[in-house]
Amino acid sequence: MSESQAPAATETLSDTHRRFLTLRDQLREQIIGQEHLVDSLLIGLLADGHLLVEGAPGLAKTTAIKALADRFEGDFHRLQFTPDLLPGDLTGTEVYRPQTGEFVFQKGPIFHNLILADEVNRAPAKVQSALLEAMGERQVTVGMTTYELPEPFLVMATQNPIEQEGTYPLPEAQLDRFLMHVDVGYPDAEAERRILHLVRERARRQMEAPETPEVLLHCDDVRQGRIEVLDIHMAEAVEEYIVQLVVATRDPSAYDEGLARWIAYGASPRGTLSLDRCARAHAWLAGKDYVSPEDVHAVVHDVLRHRIILSFEAEAEGVVPDGFIDELLRKVPVV
To answer: What is the pTM of this model?
Structure first.
């Protein structure tokens, strides 16, 4: 997301915009070498969607959302998903009060603004179903009663790509509910050295005088930011480019017959909507007042990689979703 690092004309920015940029800068200083993850979290907030984050252990996935929560007015909860987790452990349960002879609903940890669902693919199907309703409908149903979840509401779910024993693969219906699927890689050597120095210095400061980060972002800022993102200008040509990219995931034969052999199922209309919202948020964070094809390119892999199901032929040839998307970007002309 190199464009998001371009200096913006601060005199034209709203107060909300400045708060988001200040928050982004602080998160990048704390989460070294993971600028893409930081930007994706902010895009998720601005585009009102959820993130599936995949990466090896120790790559600051948990640290990133906790650092965001420390600077955000809303509340945060971490859920460790395990095979013995029950839906009630997520949603809450009705508790009997003998004093009154009534059942009272006790809210579960899902009733927070920011949720970290750690190793989400370790939970069984019933828990996945409860999480799916929360993510898709922003509500929880217990018995005959439905409870609304707080706003804003963002789930960042993590997956460990290394250890797959004892996991439950996420169904396609649930994968499609995620706004983006973010791959987190290792930092380079220079970033590794900076991480070493930062963590050592932070540990020393915490022992001397524990610090409490300043709250930079309020719930009203998130709502206002979403309005400004939706109001950003998108030319009809860029809108058409987004539509053609998503349509091409379903039937790429119009551009290349060879690509058609690789695809079993393409992205749904939810992919089009997500690509539009994420491209707008990316442009807004870059300080621009319009969306360009570069903004679409910056987010297209994260938006589409989990919405594409490749054919057996593609898997036999070693093709991965990112490679298929790369070919689409080369074949589908920028309108």
So the answer is: 0.90
